[in-house]
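ok so dumb question maybe but i'm new to this and my supervisor (M.) told me to 'just get the structure for MerR family transcriptional regulator' and walked off. so i did the thing. is this what she meant?? sequence i used:
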Amino acid sequence: MKIGELSRETGVAVRLLRYYEDQGLLVSHRSEGGHRHYDADAPLVVARIRTLLAAGLPTRVIRDLMPCFVGEGVELQDCVFDHLTAQLAELDTRIADLTRARTTLGGILDASRRARIDA
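this is what came out, is it supposed to look like this??
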């Protein structure tokens, strides 16, 4: 499958497919003319990459997880559970930090609005 076909089938821009390849997430084979060709499972690989990106995982982590998939879905081997649990804890920490920042910013806005009304 050529890169344009993979792009059409997955809905992922050619530029992103090249990026995934540069990051070691997706593998292609080059023809004599230098054109990229992908294996038949490339759409599944791209779907997995997109799912892991949507889960907030950086490409360096995704690269490590790619060989650990089981079956045709997004299920991963037990050996990566600790790593995924750590990633989830990092997300929870970031969410808590953002929630505090949002509350603080909301308080600043409320105080500023009250000050304008009282003035």
